[in-house]
Amino acid sequence: MSYADEYRSKLVSAEEAVKIVKSGDWLDWGQTLSNPYALDKALAARKGELDDIKIRLVLSAKEHEIWKVDPKGETFHMNNWHFGRADRAQHDKGNAYHIPNLYRNNPLFYRKSLYDDVDVAMFRVPPMNKHGYFNFSCSVAVLRAICDVAKKIIVEVCPGLPWACGGREELIHISEVDYIVEADSPVVEIPSAPATKTDKVIAEHVIKEMTDGACIQLGIGGMPNAVGTLLAESELKDLGCHSEMLCDAFYHLHEAGKLTNKCKSIDRGKTVYAFAAGSHFLYDWIDNNPSMAAYPTNYTNDPYNIAKNDNVVSINNCIEVDLYGQISSESSGTRHISGTGGQLDFVTGAYSSRGGKAIICCTSSYQDKEGRLQSRIVPMLPSGSIVSVPRTQAHIIITEYGKCDLAGRSTWERAERIINIAHPDLRDDLIQEAQKMKIWSKSNKI
User: Fold this and answer.
1) Could you tell me the fold of the domain covering 21-182?
2) Phi–psi pair at 166, nearest 5 degrees
3) Is 15 a catalytic residue?
4) Residue of 244, 320, 413, 416 marked catalytic
5) Which of 12, 97, 117, 311 has the highest CB neighbour count under 10 A?
6) So what's the pLDDT on residue 149?
């Protein structure tokens, strides 16, 4: 049978494909742009027939149809490795749950612990090539591992998705697929938030920490994107990319001639990433581009692999930092915001790199709903806040007021250095709290 014949034999409507889902099943939808559209709608239409359907996914790019028909989560239970805005809104309603993880472990979780808990994998892919392969597009990170353990696999073919060159584990063959659904669904743009004036000041501090030939990782959000954009306008040259996420900033670096990858020790000449989310020009850049290599996260996020490159600089956001140097990047108290993702992976790998630096950025303060100035540097993290990076791994922290390097520093040194980059109007209160916590020495000075 030719691949074209096999394709036709497996091609069904979305409504027909989801008939294999039965009550009590665990489903996997993959990450962001791989999340299904037609299959989501067909599954939502079966709400009255099904019970106890558990779904795993990563960072939703849309409001899913199952949420619309099941706003209280009575039938469909969403479990998310990393929250986006839509997931966060559902969590606030009590209708979405987080799966704690280090991103580098995601493929291992499926192969070592969840190998009997994926009843149906359903996700979007670009059209099949002439050799019978489908591509995981912007969501290579963990999809191959999911497919390796899934009992049934449904692919939803979306013509607009880019074809991502590997790397490895970026493909699935038609012989492994049970059903094929065709649906011309949107390829959602997820550009980074616009950089604020404060973001740009912070970015300028970050760029001072970098040298020609640096290999960079940028996290999610306006701050890392601002850094990448300013890098494109800087005098730095021959930068490299080894990142979990590929965002718009890397495209701007490429267009500016800054991203050459020529100084990397591994994957030299290649822009390396695990997933992508951004604007359409980013997706166009990815499509069939042999200078790029998409890998699973157990490769991109392995600290040992990260450290193989020299002068790695990881740049990530956080929500709060306390005076011990504990970093919270995923929750505000018990309200879950995002996830650990690969932050700890890259903090560890970058610091282990020869000449490498692990940088965490945040604004020093924010205004609450009543317009009061609140510090992002706090004496201790609020009750329920998740420690994304423990104090033992905290290295460079940067706000608009400068940087502090915590590596190898005692508690009193940390307190002094952290308070030095807090908002000036809030420093006295922090000093008083540090004294109560007995981490303020007579030798401390501000």
Assistant:
1) Glutaconate Coenzyme A-transferase (3.40.1080)
2) -100, 165
3) no
4) 244
5) 311
6) 98
